[in-house]
Write a structure and sequence with these properties.
The protein contains 30 helices and 21 strands. It has 761 residues and is of the alpha/beta class. The termini are far apart.
Length: 761
């Protein structure tokens, strides 16, 4: 029996406070270009803006290149059908439309602006939208009552050459069709054989019926009902939109129609379906009770009488939520990226099929978190992907774009769809630009990577993902019993196939003890001490595996402090010749990547250590494909203000000048001077000002504070810290790292094992 899950409750006051906190409303406009200098203003506005104006006048299509048009969607409503509240007027719809705009940005990186049209006259609304349409790459119609929504959308499609999409209709239809595809698959029913009953004859119901027919439902097998009962041929006073679904049937009411039905779709009102109606349906009935906020029949009632039913609702507190959020942002994303002239039936069906197929794949950790720690599996209670599935941004837009190109409505074509998918991921996660290159390399040369804290939930999940993503072979270190218990906790079978190893492996333990004793015997360690280390410490055991070439690389940490992990590693590993051991963090922000060091190891570095750290950072930066530009940071810039806390930084600069190194560097300077090009005018003598991509911090506390602030409050994505300077490819995850963080470190360790020559000291 399906039980309702717990959802968060809130008061009207809390909702109102949410909308007034900080800036009123939910959206704002930000500049995508720097506007910090007089020159910037001249380029952005007068006189520089005249250049794109003249080009667009010659060729209107260039508006996609010189303006935001290609990534801008208008969310338009007249407020005649707001949620389930009815016609409350255009202005009252604004909070909803702002919310829609927020969702466009959050889930698909589409800029959006809400427009509320104060009219109930369809011609007036059409003319308004038509006259402003040149501003936008697409139009999303929302909360417009039937039949005007049909009229408005149809005429706009005829008159405009940009995507017009009424989400209340087509969004619901696409998600419902995806759910139907999977429900039919699970129940073993054939699309051309099933009898479908739809209760409700509004915009969404009609759109669903049309897409069901496109999918393969026979027109004679689809019965639609409204408040008055079955829509049958010859019924009086049926408008042209409903009459298109009139069938030649003897059924006159919903109860009769549902007898022996295979599929029920409700887009109507609560409690209109009885238990007896459900009992009368065919074996393995498919019941989508999507009335909001309360379904046509509660799922728990269905499951009490039909254990064979597949049930979906429009609510988040039951399995299988029909949620338009799974569709509209990604459909527009694909349409905009090929500059589609419309969103046609081929594109809708492509989206539905892509959504359906995604639900059949193993779900990532982000979905597990959304489900309260449970890992859903494709089946009766998981036929629709979660709204939090990060793969949606890759899968749906690509499917929609392909369909647009194939059907001839795309203005531009995408040549490399795999690259396009990577770009889509990057829109929501800027670190993907770095990690995709590393992962692509690792997949070509897969490595064996040890995950030293195998009993930790996130470490174990990272190991599983490492294997699933074809990055190499994961080995987890831990008690077999406890690892199996953890597998169950994260929603997997305790017998899930993954290699588990520990010190009970006598042959390996004895070999590692022999290796380590040779290294430590002149440091006061007895052989029994070394044996105890290998037996009892997973970091020591795992790093010995790498040292003895039983594995290529290792990731550890997450359950102990970073410094404690480093100390354990030092028993097995040595510093690379001529290099210090330090932490380096990658910060990825709006297309710019900066390396920061030392973020984790040395409290107060000397000038000599700063020099050594900078050289190592340069080496690593080049491995990642960067042209290194090193800035030594301080609270002062080129001597102002002078203090004793800047002396070691200034000394490091002098040392490097004498050494004549093969990279550009400068300092001391404040971080904004290092990163912001506006300071080039003030300090024209420096090649690094405004241009740095390696930041050498003056002390550990300043490095830790700045990176933690960026992680907590900024829009930046952090990778690392990467552990630099060991003679083995090993990375350490800080306490409470996420699965994604650990997975990234494992990939970096695997990458390092191949591109770095680890010479024995």
């Amino acid at each position: 029996m399906t039980k309702k899950s717990k959802i968060d409750h809130y008061t009207d006051k809390e909702a109102l406070n949410f909308h007034t906190k900080g800036k009123s409303g939910k959206i704002e406009v930000n500049s995508s270009k720097p506007l910090t200098t007089k020159r910037d203003l001249s380029l952005a506005y007068s006189p520089g803006v005249a250049a794109p104006v003249k080009e667009i006048a010659k060729n209107p299509d260039l508006a996609y290149d010189y303006t935001s048009k290609g990534n801008l969607v208008a969310v338009i409503s007249n407020g005649s059908a707001i949620l389930g509240l009815g016609n409350l007027g255009s202005l009252a719809s604004k909070p909803v439309m702002e919310g829609k705009a927020v969702l466009f940005k959050r889930f698909a990186d589409i800029d959006s602006i809400d427009i509320e049209v104060n009219s109930n006259d369809p011609d007036e609304i059409i003319n308004t939208i038509k006259n402003i349409s040149g501003t936008f790459g697409g139009i999303n119609l929302e909360d417009i009552a039937a039949p005007n929504c049909f009229i408005i959308e149809k005429k706009l499609k005829e008159q405009l050459d940009i995507p017009i999409f009424h989400d209340d209709q087509h969004g619901t239809a696409i998600i419902t069709t995806a759910a139907l595809i999977n429900a039919l698959d699970i129940s073993g029913k054939k699309i051309d054989k099933v009898k479908v009953v739809i209760n409700g004859a509004g915009a969404s119901a009609i759109a669903c019926a049309n897409l069901f027919k496109t999918l393969g439902v026979k027109p004679g097998n689809l019965i639609m009902c409204d408040r008055k009962g079955v829509i049958y041929k010859g019924r009086d006073k049926v408008d042209k939109f409903k009459s298109a679904f009139a069938t030649d049937t003897k059924f006159r009411n919903l109860k009769d129609a549902m007898k022996n039905a295979d599929v029920f779709l409700g887009l109507s009102a609560k409690d209109v379906v009885s238990a007896d109606m459900v009992k009368s349906m065919e074996k393995n009935p498919i019941i989508f009770a999507c009335a909001n906020p309360d379904p046509e029949i509660k799922p728990e009632i269905i499951h009490e009488i039909r254990s064979d039913a597949i049930v979906a609702t429009g609510r988040s507190d039951y399995p299988n939520q029909v949620n338009n959020l799974i569709g509209f942002p990604y459909i527009f994303r694909g349409a905009l990226d090929v500059r589609a002239k419309e969103i046609n039936e081929e594109m809708k069906m492509a989206a539905a099929k892509a959504i359906a197929l995604l639900a059949r794949e193993e779900v990532p950790d982000e979905v597990v978190s959304a489900y309260g720690g449970e890992r859903p599996k494709y089946g009766r209670e998981y036929i629709i992907p979660s709204t939090f599935d990060p793969r949606l941004i890759r899968i749906i837009p690509a499917a929609v774009a392909k369909a647009a190109i194939k059907s001839g409505v795309a203005r531009i074509k995408i040549k490399d769809f795999e690259n396009y998918k990577e770009q889509l991921s990057y829109r929501l996660d800027p670190s993907m630009s770095i990690m995709q290159g590393i992962n692509a390399y690792v997949r070509k040369k897969p490595k064996t990577v040890v995950f030293a804290e195998g009993e930790d939930k996130n470490m174990l999940k990272a190991a599983i993902e490492f294997g699933k993503n074809n990055l190499g072979k994961p080995i987890v270190v831990g008690s077999e019993k406890r690892v199996r218990e953890t597998l169950e906790k994260i929603g997997l079978d305790k017998n899930y196939k993954i290699e588990i190893i520990n010190s009970t492996d006598k042959e390996k333990r004895e070999r590692y003890v022999k290796f380590l004793y040779q290294k430590l015997q002149r440091t006061g360690q007895l052989e029994r001490d070394v044996d105890r280390l290998v037996r009892n410490d997973r970091v020591v055991f795992g790093s010995s595996m790498v040292a003895c070439k039983d594995a290529d690389a290792m990731v550890t940490g997450n359950i102990r402090h970073y410094s404690a992990s480093i100390e354990k590693l030092k028993t097995v590993c040595n510093p690379r010749k001529g290099e210090p051991i330090f932490g380096m963090t990658m910060i990825v922000f709006k297309g710019k990547t900066v390396l920061v060091a030392d973020t984790n190891v040395k409290d107060f570095p000397s000038a000599e250590r700063l020099v050594a750290v900078s050289k190592s950072c340069v080496r690593v930066a080049r491995l990642f494909g960067f042209d290194p530009k090193v800035a030594f940071l301080s609270h002062s810039t080129f001597g102002k203000p002078i203090s004793r806390n800047t002396e070691h930084v200034r000394k490091a600069i002098e040392i490097l000048k004498k050494e004549k190194v093969n990279f550009n560097f400068d300092g001391e300077m404040q971080p904004d001077v290092a990163l912001n090009p506006m300071y080039k005018e003030i300090y024209p003598f420096s090649k690094i000002v405004g241009n740095a991509n390696i930041l050498i911090m003056p002390a550990l506390h300043s490095a830790a504070i700045s990176t933690k602030l960026m992680k907590s409050f900024g829009d930046a994505k952090l990778i690392g810290p990467l552990l630099i300077g060991l003679d083995l490819p090993i990375e350490v995850a800080p306490l409470r790292s996420t699965t994604s963080d650990i997975l990234n470190l494992a990939s970096v360790a695997a990458y390092s094992s191949d591109v770095i020559k680890y010479e024995k000291n």
